[in-house]
Every structure is written in C-alpha cells, then in structure tokens.
Amino acid sequence: MNSNKSKLIIGTRSSKLALWQTNFVKENLEKFFPDIEVTIKEIKTKGDQITDISLSKIEGKGFFTKEIEDALLNNEIDLAVHSLKDLPTKLPGGLKISAVLNREDPCDVLILRNEPAYRRIGETAKRAFNNLKEGSKVGTSSLRRISQLKAIRDDLEYLELRGNVDTRIRKLQEGQYDAIVLAYAGVKRLGFENLISEKFNPKEILPAVCQGILAIESRENDNDTESTIMKLNDEKAYLISIAEREFLSTLQGGCQIPVGAYSEIIENKITLYGVIASLDGKKIIRDKITGNLNEAKEIGIKLAQMLLQNGGRKILENIMPIRQNTSLFNV
After folding, report:
1. Is the residue at 139 inside a domain?
2. Active site includes 234?
3. Phi-psi region at 89: left, alpha or beta (left = phi > 0; alpha = psi -120 to 50)
4. Confidence label for 329 from pLDDT (cuts 50, 70 and 90)
5. What is the pTM of this model?
6. Residues 48, 52, 78, 86: which is the catalytic one?
7. Domain with 188 in it: what CATH number?
C-alpha cells in the first residue's frame, strides 16, 4: 500500500504497557507501509508523575493523556496511541480518534498472592474471588470495580492500588495485598497471563468503557496521517466504541463515576450492557439493549437514559458533591 507520509512520530506514555501498545501499532503500520519511517516519542503525563495520591482525590480530566495531546496539537508528534478507556469522551478541539484496533478480551481478572491455582483449563468448580477469606485485602484503584465487587462481597477490605501493571503485581507479591484486580488486556499483553486466578464474566463485573481497545488519535486537519492510520481500523471495535462512549457521554461522567459497559456483536446485532453503581455497592442499576449496527450511537444514548430513569440518576446525584471536588478515574 502507498501513503503520502514518509515519516510518522508516535507519542506515548513510557510505561511498559503503553510501549507495548505503541510498538504493536508501529509494527502494524510498518507491515502496511514498509516505506514509512515510524519512530516513538515517550512523553510523561500527570498520571505517571503523581503516584502517591489516590486517583479518587486528583482533580482534572485527561489524567493520562493531556501532555500527549498537547504534543499532538503542537505538531511535536503525528499521532498518539492510547488505551481508549483513558480518553475523555470529549476530546480537545482539533483532535480526533482516527482508528481503533481489534478489541482484546475486555474482562477484569483477579490475581491471588498465594494460590494462582484456578487458572487451569477447564476448572470451573471454584471461583477464586468467592473463596477469599473474610477480611482479605483486595487492591484496585477503580471505583467501578470496587462498587461491583462490594455488591458481591462486602466483607473484604478494598485498598487503593497505584502503579503500572508490573508494579501492581510486585506490590501483591510483596504481601501488601492478598489479591488484586486488573484489566485482562494489560495482564496478557505484558505476559502475566499465567498468574491469573479468575477471569470475571464481563456481563457480571462490567468493565470500563472501551476497556481492551487501543485508539489512535490524530489532528483533525492532518488528512494524510488519518488516511494512513485508517488502514488499521477495526469496524467492530469502532462500532463498540461508539456505543460505549455515547453511553458514558450521556451520563456526563467522563471517567469520573462508577460506571461500566460491555458490548458484543452477534449476527449483525449489537448488544450493550451497562451499569451504574453506588460507591458502597449497595445500589446497582444495570440493563441491556440490542439494536442494529447502524444504531450504535442511539443504543448508547438510550441505555444511559434507561439507567438514569431506573435509579441511576439518584445514584449520580449522591455522588455529585464528590465529583465537584475530585475526579474518580476508572483505571
């Protein structure tokens, strides 16, 4: 394939996972366009620099993306690779999502400190989470996860967990936690899949909006770059991202509320599952909706409205005083 571009600079965070994701995009671009010189520029974000403060106490949007987007707007890079779940639903003026890649399994996973024994193929008799001892310390920085897990087991101690995937696993192995909950995509991409004790059903513990999807962001007026990037776009993941991001946008929450979503496409129909949860896990509002593929946007909006009408609005109103002073990131 031919492209009008001779060079491309990709901006990314410097974590191992971010670099894996960016190199994955780089390799795919080079496969399609062997004549393009693709280089990577590492950029420190606020989220990388502040590691000693709970995510639920940090103000502002684009915690893991702003500095990268600034570099994009300043023409220091040509495109940026993100975990789509980290991108606010409203992008800065002048930027757009030009492509999304095939979605990795979006589920969350549990990793135990002492007994990663439930990963054996075909073994379903035991559920690692249900078998944790009362009072066990479970690490996660996501209010979305905590809310849904508390609804199942409120006898566990849920603790803040910060750091990159490998840092979080190290903290577990050091004994700071009895178990931790992470996104499967990051665990798999970094080669820690053998540590998984349990994969949560994404219809039961709904993942973050667009979890497992990689997004490529570019400038709106850079048509040459956009036409090149579009070769990597996955149509199913694109439709899923529209449905889930419209769902979140309609809730007007960005990444700042305990909200989860999961979509699946079967036989040219898209089904979107959504949840709004109270911080203590005592109120869980969930529902689903199915429609045609060309209705992805409308499905996202309609499901959000359904959840709001069925009790979700009251949950969000109770969370609102907290949201006015903090950003509650679903990481």
Report:
1. yes
2. no
3. alpha
4. very low
5. 0.89
6. 86
7. 3.40.190.10
